[in-house]
Amino acid sequence: MLKLLSILVLSLSLLSCGNKKPNKLPEGVIDKSQFPFPPDDEYEYPEE
User: Fold this and answer.
1) Residue 42 and residue 28: Cα distance in Å, rounded?
2) Could you give the CA distance from residue 34 to residue 45 in angstroms, rounded to a whole number?
3) Which of 1, 2, 7, 28 is most buried (CB neighbours < 10 A)?
4) What is the mean pLDDT of residues 11-36?
């Protein structure tokens, strides 16, 4: 019983961890998530 209870508490604590709010980049930072991967020469990257 104690083992089951400890597994339940551990799983609930792991589920409650994490980021709940939407992340936003600061002003002037380039969003690199839209860049192609692997990088290719034909894509025009924005200037830094």
Assistant:
1) 24
2) 10
3) 7
4) 82
